[in-house]
# Entry
Amino acid sequence: MIALPCPQDHYCSLGVTTISPIPCPSLNPYSQAMSSSPSNCSSIMYHPCRPGYFLFPIVGGICSPCTETSYCPGIESAIIACPPGSTWSSLPLSKSISDCTFKTITIVTPIVCPINTIIPKNSGGGDIYMTSIFQCRAVAGFFFIPAYHAQGIICPSGYYCPPASLTPILCPSNICTVNGSMQTSNICPVQSSSILAECQPCPGQLIANAHYIAVNSCLFCCNVGYLLTAISCVAITTTINCPENTYVPFIDLTGCSASMVACESCPASIP
# Structure
């Protein structure tokens, strides 16, 4: 008999199916795969979420029940809103778009979408026929789960929210790899609807006749044949004659070969 990993919401001796998997008890019905003891069972469902549940990314990996008007297929623990047109309705814990159904409601007053949400557009670009605020969708930089939030919620730092987001999307790690540029400190600030550029130009103008010592750095050295001044690299066209008690030193910037700088005063005599 081939031993297989113990399935979710069960426990098995040694974590594999050497015997029939034992379901977790009703008060603590959830467990991760390969659980080996009833002590591994919990009343809380953790990622990966089962169909009918979704992962809200900023609450520490805990799965939440899928709300009405949405469905949660269990793929990547996502929640997906039913189409905002006529089939916008679904029951809680729905698992498939086939669970989204037509729902007729008599409209007494015009539908007004909550704060930071708008009426979606149909395929022709016009507003859809609204029968419920659950058909409203978040504006860019906000997220909104119908039947879960009272209004659009501002996208937190470290996440981004394109238009119609149900949950915020975690920002990727940003690594600038461009010479003469510096890494953007936060590519997803509060209320982001998209990811900012990973690199920003170094302050001021790029230095002509210079090279930058490393990626994601604003430190530079002059190319051969150029003199390093306070803010630029100037071509050396004549012999440098320094006044008495001054000299032209060579400096070593980390990652650069020696560069010349303007005349400097000689150090004080050592007794």
